[in-house]
Amino acid sequence: QEPFVADEYIERLAWRTPGGGSRGGEAFDPKRLLEEFVNHIQELQVMDERIQRKVEKLEQQCQKEAKEFAKKVQELQKSNQVAFQHFQELDEHISYVATKVCHLGDQLEGVNTPRQRAVEAQKLMKYFNEFLDGELKSDVFTNSEKIKEAADIIQKLHLIAQELPFDRFSEVKSKIASKYHDLECQLIQEFTSAQRRGEISRMREVAAVLLHFKGYSHCVDVYIKQCQEGAFLRNDVFEDAAILCQRVNKQVGEIFSNPETVLAKLIQNIFEVKLQSYVKDQLEEHRKSDAEQYLKNLYDLYTRTTNLSSKLMEFNLGTDKQTFLSKLIKAIFISYLENYIEVEIGYLKSRSAMILQRYYDSKNHQKRSIGTGGIQDLKERLRQRTNLPLGPSIDTHGETFLSQDVVVNLLQETKQAFERCHRLSDPSDLPKNAFRIFSLLVEFLCTEHIDYALETGLAGIPSSDSKNANLYFLDVVHQANTIFHLFDKQFNDHLMPLISSSPKLSECLQKKKDIIEQMEVKLDMGIDRTLNCMIGQMKHILAAEQKKTDFKPEDENNVLIQYTNACVKVCGYVRKQVEKIRNSMDGKNVDTVLMELGVRFHRLIYEHLQQYSYSCMGGMLAICDVAEYRKCAKDFKIALVLQLFDTLHALCNLLVVAPDNLKQVCSGEQLANLDKNILHSFVQLRVDYRSARLARHFS
Question: Which segments of the protein form a coiled coil according to its record (predicted)?
Answer without folding.
Answer: 41-79
